[in-house]
Amino acid sequence: MRKLTFILVCMMVAGSTIANADEKLVDLIKKVKPSVVLIETFDKDNKPIGQGSGFFIDNKGRLITNHHVIEGAYSATIKTSTGKEYPVQGIVAKDTAADIVKLLDGNFHTNVGFEFKFRDVLSLRGGYRTGWEEKGWNTGFGFAYTRYALDYGYAPFSSNLGSSHRISFSVRL
Predict the structure, then answer these.
(1) What is the model's pTM?
(2) Residues of 10-23 as b/e, b for ≥16 C-beta within 10 angstroms?
(3) Is 9 exposed, middle or buried (0-12, 13-18, 19+ CB in 10 A)?
(4) Which residues pair with 112 in a beta bridge?
C-alpha cells in the first residue's frame, strides 16, 4: 500500500511540473511568435521553388534563416505571423559553411521624432514609428540639473510584448 501511495504522489508531482512547463512554453511561444516568419522562394518565372522559416533579429527588418532556404532562388518573400508579406530586399551577410544567412526585408520603415527643450533643464520628447508590425506614438521626457540627468521613454505595443518603459540616470564626471 505504501508503494502505491508513493507512486501516486510521484505521478501527481510530475504531472503538475509538466503542466507548469507546458504553460511556460505556451507563454514563450506567444512572446516570440511576432518575430518568426515564413520565407517563400521563387524562380525567375515567379514560380514557387521552396520555403523555410526565419526570425527577425532587430527592428530594422533584418532576419536570420538557413542558407539552403534561399539557395538557388531568384527572389523571395517574407510572410509574418499577421499575414503581411514583404519582398526580400537583399542579403546582408552569409556563411554557407554554417548554412546561415542574414536577410533584409523590403518594407519601408521609418521613425520620426521631436524634442522640446526648456532652459536646458526639461526635455519633452515624442515620436512615431511606421512600417513595422508595431507602429504608433512614443513619448518621453528628460530632466537635467547640474551634472545629473534622468530620462524616461515609453513605447506602447499592441502585441504580446507588452509596453516598453526605459529609464536612465546619468552623472557627468
Answers:
(1) 0.51
(2) eeeeeeeeeeeeee
(3) exposed
(4) 128
Closest residue by Cα to residue 82 from 121, 7, 135: 135
Per residue in 139-160, pLDDT tens?
999 999 999 999 999 988 766 5
Closest CA to 106 of 48, 165, 39: 39
CA 168 to chain centre: 22
Any idea where the domains of the chain sit in the sequence?
35-105, 110-171
What is the Cα–Cα distance from 97 to 53, expressed in whole angstroms?
19
For residue 136, name the pLDDT band (cuts at 50, 70, 90).
confident
Architecture of the domain made up of 35-105? Beta Barrel (2.40)
What pLDDT, on the 0 to 100 scale, is given for residue 142?
93
Cα separation, 11 vs 17, whole angstroms: 10
